[in-house]
């Protein structure tokens, strides 16, 4: 498995992919965190889905990590695209047959790739955390937010919790991407279907069918990042995402193990 | 210790109602070069895929280097393969693509430059794969197949896209590998190449093995001919009549008599011609080439 991990990293460390992804992560994190502070007094809201996050809330210990957790949904989409592309490209390039000749244990190959991409996702979350927290401190003065509580032990603990939750959320998004990549065997349909579902279809269903939001995988993954929200509690979101991902993972593991590899 | 590199018995693969490979049985001895030939769609690549564990047979059994083909993990670390053409990551260099596969297979990455030199890609090692020509991609595929220092090398159309000099280099490379004891199982449309390098042949037609054995035995099985050229071309018809009277059919091709007869009848023909006052300027007994045999056996027209 360790050989698969290091082999996969030879692809992931490619400068265009690595720095391109990190650039995208920094950009979305900076955007979300900046809007949080710069639109603080805006009547249109400064949080996700137009929610208002007050100055008093930002001044609490967990205020330092709100920008970071708010960016989780977009980080998740980045992870979905990377996981889906890295998986589905093996089919479109025809490289899967090379990989399977060198590592015929298919589930080992799949798991090794997943762990490598998880470690890649971990780096994106670290980068996002650094940008979000750094920017929060930098913008606090301009937004007239008191940061006294941000340096307490409570704030550090809150940041660690948020980091873990965002990481779980991002990996969940990535796993969805990997599942779609194996199902569709081509990056374009895998990514477009994933993004369309999470950004459009889920929101339409949630807006039109009462109480449906709490059963939507995308909403639940975002809910995990913020430690639970109005749609569902943290535990409900974790349980729901676990069930969806377990079902999807079992399906694609069986498919990947049994499916013939041919053009 | 087995002496057979590849052994399959009744190997079959069906896709729905379509049979791609039907009850294929053959053996490839260790340390030989075996050509795998057949028309397009005859099941060569499907057979190779089954041997590499990429697709599951619907019937039959087989062993590679003494291990059951249902457990490719037991033998693939000793097998090098290039199947369905080269396939690599376009944005990685040739060397990095090889390093990736070496890492995955647990082989030393230090050998990568040497392998690239061996296939003539040493000076383009750090160029991106997407910038390679078809011939260079093919060479990289062969280098990747050599990564495990294989006991068995399976190559599917390795000379596709190569120029004549490249084809000759690959021929020499395969010969060198075979002389070092590597078993080479190679499919190609270039039958003259296969004829030059292979000790044995497996011939497929419509998913069925129609010949498996030594190349020389296959050619000996075919009807030999004697090509005779008369000094006076008007004597060709007369010569054909002499041959026909002696029980050998023939025809005139390119101003020469092609008579269906074994080599040992050539001196008799020479004497019969001389007795009839015909002077021969050429008399050569020949076996049909592999290409002619192939077309005859597979029923394909050129």
TrEMBL record, chain A:
The keyword Protein biosynthesis does not apply. The keyword ATP-binding does not apply. The chain crosses the membrane at residues 16-40, 60-85, 106-139, 159-183, 190-209, 234-256. Signal peptide: none annotated. Keywords: Membrane, Transmembrane, Transmembrane helix. This is Unannotated protein. The lineage of its organism: unclassified sequences, metagenomes, ecological metagenomes.
TrEMBL record, chain B:
Transmembrane segments: none annotated. This is Unannotated protein. Belongs to the ABC transporter superfamily. Residues 6-231 form the ABC transporter domain. PROSITE patterns: ABC_TRANSPORTER_1, ABC_TRANSPORTER_2. Keywords: ATP-binding, Nucleotide-binding, Transport. GO terms for molecular function: ATP binding; ATP hydrolysis activity.
């Amino acid at each position: 498995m360790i050989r698969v991990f290091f082999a996969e990293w030879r692809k992931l460390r490619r400068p265009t992919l690595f720095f391109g992804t990190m650039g995208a992560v920094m950009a979305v994190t900076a955007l979300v965190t900046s809007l949080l502070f710069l639109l603080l007094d805006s009547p249109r809201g400064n949080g996700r889905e137009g929610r208002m996050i007050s100055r008093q809330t930002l001044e609490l210990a967990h205020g330092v990590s709100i920008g970071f957790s708010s960016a989780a949904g977009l980080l998740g989409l980045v992870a979905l695209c990377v996981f889906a592309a890295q998986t589905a490209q093996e089919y479109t390039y025809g490289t899967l047959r090379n990989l399977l000749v060198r590592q015929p244990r298919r589930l080992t190959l799949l798991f090794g790739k997943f762990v490598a991409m998880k470690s890649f996702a971990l780096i994106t979350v670290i980068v996002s955390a650094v940008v979000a927290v750094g920017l929060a401190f930098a913008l606090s003065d301009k937004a007239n937010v008191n940061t006294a509580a941000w340096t307490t032990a409570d704030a550090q603990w809150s940041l660690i919790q948020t980091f873990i939750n965002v990481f779980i959320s991002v990996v969940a998004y990535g796993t969805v991407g990997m599942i779609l990549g194996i199902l569709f065997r081509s990056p374009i349909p895998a990514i477009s279907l994933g993004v369309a579902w999470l950004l459009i279809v889920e929101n339409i269903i949630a807006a039109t069918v009462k109480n449906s939001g709490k059963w939507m995988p995308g909403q639940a993954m975002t809910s995990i990042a913020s430690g639970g929200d109005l749609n569902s509690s943290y535990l409900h979101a974790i349980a729901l995402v676990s069930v969806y991902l377990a079902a999807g993972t079992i399906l694609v593991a069986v498919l990947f193990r049994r499916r013939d590899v041919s053009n | 210790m087995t002496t057979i590199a590849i052994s399959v018995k009744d190997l079959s693969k069906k896709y729905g109602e379509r049979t791609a490979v039907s009850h294929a049985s053959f053996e490839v001895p260790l340390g030989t070069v075996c050509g795998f030939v057949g028309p397009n769609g005859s099941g060569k690549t499907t057979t190779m895929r089954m041997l590499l564990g990429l697709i599951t047979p619907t019937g039959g059994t087989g062993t590679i280097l003494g291990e059951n083909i249902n457990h490719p993990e037991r033998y693939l670390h000793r097998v090098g393969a290039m199947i369905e053409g080269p396939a690599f990551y376009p944005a990685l260099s040739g060397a990095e693509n090889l390093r990736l596969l070496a890492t995955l297979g647990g082989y030393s990455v230090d050998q990568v430059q040497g392998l690239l030199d061996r296939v003539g890609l040493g000076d383009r090692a750090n160029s991106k794969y997407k910038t390679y020509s078809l011939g260079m991609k093919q060479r990289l595929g062969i280098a990747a197949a050599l990564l495990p220092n294989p006991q068995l090398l399976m190559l599917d159309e390795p000379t596709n896209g190569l120029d004549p000099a490249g084809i000759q280099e690959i021929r020499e490379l395969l010969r060198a590998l075979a002389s070092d004891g590597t078993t080479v199982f190679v499919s190609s449309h270039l039958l003259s190449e296969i004829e030059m390098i292979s000790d044995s042949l497996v011939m497929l037609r419509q998913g069925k093995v129609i010949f498996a054995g030594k190349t020389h035995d296959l050619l000996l099985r075919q009807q030999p001919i004697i090509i005779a050229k008369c000094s006076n071309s008007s004597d060709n018809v007369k010569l054909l009549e002499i041959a026909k009277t002696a029980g050998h059919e023939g025809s005139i091709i390119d101003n020469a008599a092609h008579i269906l007869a074994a080599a040992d009848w050539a001196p008799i023909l020479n004497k019969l011609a001389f007795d009839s006052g015909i002077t021969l300027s050429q008399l050569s007994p020949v076996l049909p080439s592999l290409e002619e045999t192939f077309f005859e056996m597979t029923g394909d027209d050129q």
